[in-house]
């Protein structure tokens, strides 16, 4: 691949993101602008921004790589990422908007009137955010290594610097514009190459005959298809993805920019449609890869399928052009998800530690970029979709149960919430660390899936602990619980 | 449509919901005092009055709605996957070189998720409209 293509695509996307960020700077003046875009963002803008922020390296590169590597198991990731928004719509969107809080710690602290709940929630939000940024930076490292030949750390560093600069300069308002732009960029950057590749494959453009093409029966063997599904792993993954979405810090922060609860619901429905449209394309990429590029199906290499396939199937300048497009889209994915996460982490860190000023927000933004950068530089990616899936499992076992019970159950108490979050964090975090350290290789066969895909048992256990401890602690139920729940569920005009 | 304007298009298309007479336990009160309606101004206001009854029933019906739709989605997904696995021959039939079973699993569940989402948003807005009518009648 021509390195000039890689440099050009990366430069254009970075420059465009920075320009839109600075354009937004002229609009954002007050602290309120900085934090929540003053709650005036329209549903379509907001939905595009949510989609732009949500579609990360795991979606853009990881889904296709996983379909190539392990077949129809890979389909469940995009289905879960999308259906997570359905759960968000059903249980969280409107009430959370009406709560008037800005971050998850704001919400839990107001709901349970407890400083300790706030501290525990903030710690978890920061952990989740950091470990969600790491795969983005690793995706950037992979992209830069493959497309330009530079050492991998250059990619991680470039994304971290751009994100820090854009967030420090513009805050949330400009981020909303950047994110919305990046959703449509990512969609185009996958849709155009997919259509072109399908035309090439169907029309038999010269040069394609030279490639060894797998027979359909070999490219899509029955055991890698729906028949080969592992029921426990699939269900556990779906629990993680469906409920993990509810607790992601950068997802929730977007709902505060809706004008009211009904608009939050409309926005979420639009997001569902946008995500569904987007995920068609990485899925098709994965299917094309199985038939036309089976040699890429190795660990560490499969995630680059989206970047390499256009160049493999379409020789010449058209192939270079398509490659530039997917590189640009991939970079947009790393930039948008990381900057969304950094904005929400900076909000949490600056409100808890630095007094909530614009200056504090900026310092916090830089801090929130440096830590994941350090982690990304010393670790190696073990499949982008898989590592993001583990972050979902952790979120689903910690923040999600407290959020759901806080919205729907008046009996929740501060002690119950803390006990449940700590239990969920220990269990799911322990399982994730154990399988990352390779401890599962020695485990008996029945234990392995339980450790490698823990959400199916850690989420119910966390919920059970919250409910039992809250019931035992019933005298300490916050007195404001009824009024708070009324505020979450009563339409705004009637307050 | 501008998001700030009301009512929402979804609510606007609905026929007015049927009037439901709700009676609180004991004697029905003539009208709740206006101050009790302003929950954000008086967060400690007692919720045992008729307004509180309405609010609790709104929360219950919204929760029930969410659970029904979530359960429906999970059940439909499970049935869909079971059908893909159990219907014979889907693995051996190819469309554009890809087995039908793969295509169904890859693309079949998104329309379901969108449909469930749209239906839920309508039903939730209807619940709120019903509550609004009760609360405004009462005031």
TrEMBL record, chain A:
Its main location: membrane. CDD domains: SLC5sbd_u4. It is found in: Cell membrane. It is a multi-pass membrane protein. InterPro entries: Na/Glc_symporter_sf, Na/solute_symporter, Sodium:Solute_Symporter. The chain crosses the membrane at residues 6-25, 45-69, 75-96, 116-133, 153-171, 183-205, 235-257, 269-288, 321-349, 361-378, 384-409, 421-443, 455-472. It comes from Agromyces soli. It comes from the Bacteria. Keywords: Cell membrane, Membrane, Symport, Transmembrane, Transmembrane helix, Transport. Belongs to the sodium:solute symporter (SSF) (TC 2.A.21) family. This is Cation acetate symporter.
